[in-house]
Amino acid sequence: MRELLDAVADGSLSPAEAEAELKGYVTGDAGRFDAAREHRRGIPEAILAEGKSPEQVVELAETALETTDRALLTRLSDRQIASLESAIGESFPDATVERRSDAALIETPDRERPSLSATIGIVTAGTVDQAVADEAELVCRDAGATIDRVDDVGVAALDRTLDQADRFREADVLIVAAGREGALPTVIAGLVDTPVIGLPVSSGYGYGGDGEAALYGMLQSCTVMSAVNVDAGFVAGGQATLIARTVDSARDRSD
Amino acid sequence: MRELLDAVADGSLSPAEAEAELKGYVTGDAGRFDAAREHRRGIPEAILAEGKSPEQVVELAETALETTDRALLTRLSDRQIASLESAIGESFPDATVERRSDAALIETPDRERPSLSATIGIVTAGTVDQAVADEAELVCRDAGATIDRVDDVGVAALDRTLDQADRFREADVLIVAAGREGALPTVIAGLVDTPVIGLPVSSGYGYGGDGEAALYGMLQSCTVMSAVNVDAGFVAGGQATLIARTVDSARDRSD
Amino acid sequence: MRELLDAVADGSLSPAEAEAELKGYVTGDAGRFDAAREHRRGIPEAILAEGKSPEQVVELAETALETTDRALLTRLSDRQIASLESAIGESFPDATVERRSDAALIETPDRERPSLSATIGIVTAGTVDQAVADEAELVCRDAGATIDRVDDVGVAALDRTLDQADRFREADVLIVAAGREGALPTVIAGLVDTPVIGLPVSSGYGYGGDGEAALYGMLQSCTVMSAVNVDAGFVAGGQATLIARTVDSARDRSD
Amino acid sequence: MRELLDAVADGSLSPAEAEAELKGYVTGDAGRFDAAREHRRGIPEAILAEGKSPEQVVELAETALETTDRALLTRLSDRQIASLESAIGESFPDATVERRSDAALIETPDRERPSLSATIGIVTAGTVDQAVADEAELVCRDAGATIDRVDDVGVAALDRTLDQADRFREADVLIVAAGREGALPTVIAGLVDTPVIGLPVSSGYGYGGDGEAALYGMLQSCTVMSAVNVDAGFVAGGQATLIARTVDSARDRSD
Amino acid sequence: MRELLDAVADGSLSPAEAEAELKGYVTGDAGRFDAAREHRRGIPEAILAEGKSPEQVVELAETALETTDRALLTRLSDRQIASLESAIGESFPDATVERRSDAALIETPDRERPSLSATIGIVTAGTVDQAVADEAELVCRDAGATIDRVDDVGVAALDRTLDQADRFREADVLIVAAGREGALPTVIAGLVDTPVIGLPVSSGYGYGGDGEAALYGMLQSCTVMSAVNVDAGFVAGGQATLIARTVDSARDRSD
Amino acid sequence: MRELLDAVADGSLSPAEAEAELKGYVTGDAGRFDAAREHRRGIPEAILAEGKSPEQVVELAETALETTDRALLTRLSDRQIASLESAIGESFPDATVERRSDAALIETPDRERPSLSATIGIVTAGTVDQAVADEAELVCRDAGATIDRVDDVGVAALDRTLDQADRFREADVLIVAAGREGALPTVIAGLVDTPVIGLPVSSGYGYGGDGEAALYGMLQSCTVMSAVNVDAGFVAGGQATLIARTVDSARDRSD
Amino acid sequence: MRELLDAVADGSLSPAEAEAELKGYVTGDAGRFDAAREHRRGIPEAILAEGKSPEQVVELAETALETTDRALLTRLSDRQIASLESAIGESFPDATVERRSDAALIETPDRERPSLSATIGIVTAGTVDQAVADEAELVCRDAGATIDRVDDVGVAALDRTLDQADRFREADVLIVAAGREGALPTVIAGLVDTPVIGLPVSSGYGYGGDGEAALYGMLQSCTVMSAVNVDAGFVAGGQATLIARTVDSARDRSD
Amino acid sequence: MRELLDAVADGSLSPAEAEAELKGYVTGDAGRFDAAREHRRGIPEAILAEGKSPEQVVELAETALETTDRALLTRLSDRQIASLESAIGESFPDATVERRSDAALIETPDRERPSLSATIGIVTAGTVDQAVADEAELVCRDAGATIDRVDDVGVAALDRTLDQADRFREADVLIVAAGREGALPTVIAGLVDTPVIGLPVSSGYGYGGDGEAALYGMLQSCTVMSAVNVDAGFVAGGQATLIARTVDSARDRSD
Fold first, then answer.
1. Chain-chain contact of G41 with F189 (C-beta, under 8 angstroms)
2. What is the pLDDT at residue D254?
3. Chains A, F in contact: 3+ Cβ pairs under 8 A?
4. Separation of alpha carbons B216 and B219, rounded Å
5. Last residue of one domain, picked from the residues B48, B75, B107
6. Rg (Cα) of chain H, in Å, rounded?
């Protein structure tokens, strides 16, 4: 404790870092950031940008960078992205930004991204499913997993789905994103013995639209799979990461 | 009018037949039978046995036989079937009975079943979908359509689905029955350019069970198809029949 | 393969056309266009403009024109229409544009629109149902079907409905669009022996509004009909087209 | 007060009658009977038999007879009917029983049924709607209204509906009972300027079954009408009675 | 027919009036106006302004004025009102406008508003219910009914509800508008023997908000009443008018 | 620990009592009984009889009696009651049983029921609400609260509700049970400044039946109250008890 | 009465104060303000700003200040806040404003805020729950309760929840606000014997979002608690206040 | 092929085994058994006993034993169990039966159960969740996974949950079964970095009962997890098995 305070006193530790060290989280004007989440749960806290002002997003991202050397952000608007890039450009000029649709991963040079031998397959049915799959992918990349991304293989053109069966089989775990009637994860899970995480996407209008039919279909699937909530790319990516890390450490332990 | 009354008087016409002739329908203790339905709508009135006493079912079947030379019954319980067979055996000893699961078609020798050149494909995903498909099939058989029945080709074993693609293409119209997540009609409709009528089946427990996920999935399908209500085998069969008859008369007219 | 590459090299084939030829679809910045859909499913891929930027709509339309000689677009906003007309005016100056409410069909002079002898009746209950019916109609026109359009015959003025019964009977298949309580398809299907496709429309406020009561009513209809999802004009038009084409080829085959 | 107690003491008034006189209601083992309901609300309290033992039904019926000279019962099972007829036969040997489906009205000779000049039209779409309509009718008969009952005029055979338009117009108020898609009240209300009370009936299976589609359709009707809950025959009959009585007293007052 | 055409030719009849006379309705750019609705159904067609451009609203209002001497408009925005007043000021300079919240009734001097002896009580629970009640009231005023309006008597201050019981009793029919839990119509219907039409209002946030709890409560009410859909002021007013007119003509007939 | 084992060894403590002492709960064939629940949460674990065999109910009741000197049981069927009385009569011959509808409280002579000065008012709208209110009441009685029970004061006879206002005011907390539209808690909460806990009851058929409308109405109430789930008499009683005990100890502490 | 009028005449009483004195409420252009609500129900009427113009909010706030010396406002937008501060600054220059998120309490110097000895614990799961908890808190502060606010103790970091168990135990009543899956109130209610009021918050996207899962979870909680509607901070605060005041007066009475 | 037919001819292969070898599945009177499912999907087809006659269950079990040396059955009634044990006792006298609640695994001596090094933790909240967890467990045992079962650690007694945190951490994957509000998987997933599969159980009455609140809560969980449908023990066990096998083969491959 004394050490920490000394470090804060001599400037080698910021107050936020010290608070994170002591309590596990940091509280600022924009709310709380749970710096210890990754340690405890294996998945870092992501900053959900939706419903926050650009200033709040920037503050939380900076706290994340200060205490964990990187920030993972989801559902960013164009305006939030612009503020973020400008602010981080000043406060963390050496940080790198990786964007996927409306998600972003910012890392300081201090961060050493881990590397997992396990492969996560990420599959989309159509163009409209890509943003949600991108959010899942960024979570997996942050954890250092190997990614095999397969886009646009919806069942309306079944040949293309079948052509990829071997790639599906080679993954350690699959995330399959689909909207409308959400049949793709069922079709894929019927073809391979890889664990499948169904990720319903809020496309489609009319009855059962906005992902409802897709979620229902994945919960009722005549094959074995589990599912996450509609548009919950972060959760699908997190769950796949936890599985990939378990696989990875099984390999390591047995070495 | 006078002719009819004379016929009733001399016993060559039953009162029910006369009422059907004059008003189009017959009213008895068990309710009304719409004898003119087939003429008007192209599809005969079926007797929905569910919720009726065996006596009511028998009375309605006899009225149907008397006025239209055949009776089409759906959702028969074992007890209703037994009463029916025994009663009809006495009142219409020459009638023939064709059963499919809990549906039955009874015909007097006077009835000349029509014959349609058009083919209706009827496809099921699994064992649990067969009773509903049987109800649809009997409606189509009553109309004299050619039936191509393909069972047990659900997407959990996709090879078997794909193996039948050519048969699906040769039909003039397809009825595809599926429960659980109801992906089969979507997969088939993506393979062929035949009109598909989706028939959701009330299988599955938990959320979206009892056919709800299947119906939602057919309404949200990423390919083109129309749907009928959950377990509505009669409606699917009727709609396919109307299409088949249109196709049939197109052939005839162009001869 | 070599031939195609030669054609691309000498400029007689665009890269998009070559990709479509080889893979069946074309992938650009705005997503994927499935050029082989029509061949496989009988119905071309329509470009759903809703949720896309004007630039994306233009790009997809141009890809469609390049590879299939026409583009079918639905749910266009005024701003998207303006961009589209201006862009296509330059890139395909000889193309013709046919608009119906917020749907559009663009064709290059190379396209020879097919002609089907079968007649599709398209019926609306009221003014509010016309845009959805227009979307259905454009799909049918693209396929060359004969259209018999009957507007404003909702059951609140039943005489007008009944006056058209003969026209309803003459069609090979009927699309009946209705919002609010959606009684019109039931009333029409009770009058004629033509196949009816119910098309619920998202009008009405309060409980069961936005097309829910209409869809429920069509699924529960006491007569025989099938239904598509709320506002799914494209699907209704596509299903009617598939039926019309089956009828048409029955006529041809029997010639 | 003293008078009442004297009457109880000398046996000319039963304790139940005295309690009803003093407090407006009577409390027994089977629950409370609100003897003053009719005076206050214009409609007597009906005894809902469903979920009660035959003994409870008998006790409540006897209390009703004792304090209001008649008992109105709804949703009676066959077993409850048998108990009731046997018990009342002993306790009120002179009472008369009028049954309609599973509703019953029992009256002692002391009761003088009122007579209303106003006419209530009660219309059903099909056989399955008759029991609920019967419940409504018995409430109206209890109040002495003139009833014009028209059965089996559902829209699947529209001519029969139209044939009755003049009878519909002559009623002062119409109750229209319909299940499935519930289109009949909308069709009738579009034909006549009589107030229509929609009474949805819990028929139909699958999605929107059990009266849900019918209720939704009546609430969304494109014409003017009000509705009661699914199967609420008592409420529809009560509301029609209140209107009929208002009409009746308007006639009287103006005499 | 010839007469009409002569009248159009000499300018004494507008083309719209002639079309209305011949067909019962008039079709313009903004859709169809059903000029014969009032005659057939007793309630004129109201122009639902929501979702229409100011130009469409003006066109429909002018058609209504031309063919029926008045226009009834509901759900007008401020911008639509402004356009309307300016346009009508020019085309029908002598017309009078009566506004209630976002509803309006415009009449030409040629219109002679009828007068009904029957009284319609219109009651609101709170401030938020007034706009919907105003819509109902304007329909009743258009028909010439006597109105007794009682505002702000919600059950949170029950004394004020009870204080008005006598006024409630004197009405021939009551419309009771309430949002949130919608208890007011139940409380009033328990106090008086007047027919009550429950009018649920879309207030309230959270679960059961937007009028759902209010509608459910009115359908489940432990007293006798009928209901209309959420916010359906026009329907409630129309139904009350039909009842009032029946009462009124009962008085007249008996004179 | 040693002490406990000695006590078990010499028979002065049963094994179940020892397990409860050590772990807080006891596990038998019929499942786990949480003997420490009352200490931790202030409310004992009740034995939900529904879905259990009579033997399981008896075993759990005996465990409860052995470890906490009393057993609180809810949703008992007649058959379960009979088994229970017979078994307890043998195993705990001195125990007393207090029944309220389908709930029961069994106490050994060792139990000294506490006494709370605070008063809990328990109010029902009608006969049908009494069983659920009885379940709540027994929980409160078990805790020794003073109970003021007021039955049959539903809003359909509002005078009776108003007559009891002073009793409602004198309670420290009120539980108000109501089914159908559930208006009673709203009406009472508008009259008094006592905390009200709404207890919706699963009565009513049709839309919003089975307590749904009542729950919605309590959540949307225009006055201040909290609610528990439909038929959750135990929860309502428990919550009232926790409040009563807080009030009681406030009195004690201030003595 | 005469006294009041004299006071109005000589200006010592405003007309609004006089109306409030006589009728209990004041009616202005912006609607009705129920000045007697607090006296009757123990909780003042709050002004729900949502859906009102800034002018209406100001008018109602001024009426509240005039008649009850303070105004409690909820769901204020930034624009409404600005208008309010400017207007009150002029009309009540000595008033003090206490803001919590989008709720505000304005008091004139004449108001003597009461003081309650009872403590209300207000707990939030995360940052997103704070605004709703703030609304609840302001209601409790207005009543003078002692508040113990504990933020950011959601179950994702369970240690922090457990660390606060003693503070939870010391409160007389707890409000626990949580969105998403809403597990926090269940976890806390399992730890302490304090009454818990669950306050679901409308966070979360996808299925069960907007507070639905949280509300369901609180109604189904395996421990004892009651709940209010989603986002109903005012109701939770009001209910806690009623309990706190009962506790407080128990202490006083026993002094 | 010839070899197979020879084997059938000489009796060394049953017709069912031959059909399974050739087509992958066997079709009998009781429906189809997919003998190749395990090979393709990694999880064998389970026989869902619910809704089947005892004879059908026996037939399907015998087919499974004949073609895959074991049968996995779920949702068995007592009557089905009895038939099964008696029939298998005769046809496969050496088979062993392992039962867990209403699931059973029957194996012939020919079957060599595999062995997986990976550990699957299976956790239940309460007694009511055990049958569903047992179904999941049997699927995992069939695959040879190491099982760590932890029962009765629901959050109502949080200490017991926390006491097991280390066991939870040691598993490679966790299935957490919970009904009512379903908070347990959220609490556990917040404590450990193991992948968690939420398994909602259909306990709880009232709103959100039958597992709905539990499913919603798992989909909305503030931590990372995936979920399966309500009561879908087989699916949860299958998904955990697929993960365990991936982990297992990772260990093997790295050896």
1. yes
2. 58
3. no
4. 5
5. B107
6. 20
Question: Which helix or strand (DSSP H or E) is residue D192 part of?
Answer: none
Residue at C113 is within a domain: no
CA distances from G192 to C48, F240, G162, G169 (A): 55, 15, 11, 6
Q: pLDDT digit string (tens) for G15-45?
A: 888 877 777 778 888 778 888 888 888 889 9
Chain A: residues touching B (Cβ < 8 Å): 125-126, 154-158, 162, 180-183, 186-187, 190-191, 204, 206-209, 212-223
For F158, which residue in chain D has the nearest alpha carbon?
Answer: D40
Q: How many angstroms away from the CA of A206 is the closest CA of chain C?
A: 5
In tens, the pLDDT along A185-194 reads 999 999 999 9
F113 in a structural domain: no
Identify the domain containing residue F31 by its residue range. 2-107
Predicted confidence band at D141 (pLDDT cuts at 50, 70, 90)?
very high
Is F72 within 8 Å of F135 (Cβ atoms)? no
Tell me the shortest Cα–Cα distance from E192 to chain D, in angstroms: 5
Q: How far is E8 from chain G (nearest CA, A)?
A: 49
Residue B114 lies in a domain: no
Domain holding C199: CATH number?
3.40.50.1970
C13 shares a domain with C138: no
With the C-alpha atoms ordered E210, E214, E220, E226, is the resulting torsion angle positive or negative? negative
Which of B246, B253, B255 to substitute to test the interface with C, most C CBs within 10 Å? B246
Chain C residue numbers with beta carbons less than 8 Å from the beta carbon of A209 are 229
Domains: count for chain B: 2
Q: Tell me the shortest Cα–Cα distance from B201 to chain D, in angstroms.
A: 9
Q: Most D CBs within 10 Å: which of E246, E251, E253, as the mutation test of the D interface?
A: E246
Q: What is the pLDDT along chain F (255 residues), one digit of tens a residue?
A: 678 778 888 888 888 887 777 777 788 887 788 888 888 888 999 999 998 899 999 999 999 999 999 999 999 999 999 999 999 999 999 999 999 999 999 999 999 999 999 999 999 998 899 999 999 999 999 999 999 999 999 998 898 899 999 999 999 999 999 999 999 999 999 999 999 999 999 988 889 999 999 999 999 999 999 999 999 999 999 999 999 999 999 987 655
- Chains in touch with A (≥3 Cβ pairs < 8 A): B, C, G, H
CB neighbourhood size of B170 (10 A): 12
Same domain, C154 and C182: yes
Contacts of D241 (CB under 8 A, 6+ apart): D42, D43, D120, D139, D140, D143, D145
Give D8's contacts (C-beta < 8 A, 6+ positions apart).
D14, D15, D18
Per-residue pLDDT of chain C (255 residues; tens, 9 = 90+): 778 778 888 888 888 888 777 777 788 887 788 888 888 888 899 999 998 899 999 999 999 999 999 999 999 999 999 999 999 999 999 999 999 999 999 999 999 999 999 999 999 998 899 999 999 999 999 999 999 999 999 998 898 899 999 999 999 999 999 999 999 999 999 999 999 999 999 988 889 999 999 999 999 999 999 999 999 999 999 999 999 999 999 987 655
Residues G81 and G30 in one domain: yes
Closest residue in D to F156 (Cα) is D37
* Residue A132 and residue A94 share a domain: no
Looking at the structure, do residues C127 and C229 belong to the same domain, yes or no?
Answer: yes
Q: Which of H74, H107, H140 is the last residue in one of the domains?
A: H107
Q: What is the pLDDT of residues A72-82, one digit of tens each?
A: 999 999 999 99
Domain-located, residue A167? yes
Whole-angstrom distance, CA of residue E162 vs CA of residue E158 = 6
Looking at the fold, whether G126 and G247 belong to one and the same domain comes out as yes
Residues contacting E38, CB < 8 A, separation 6+: E44, E45, E68
Q: How far is E214 from chain C (nearest CA, A)?
A: 11
Chain A interface test: which of H221, H226, H239, H246 (most A C-beta within 10 Å) = H226
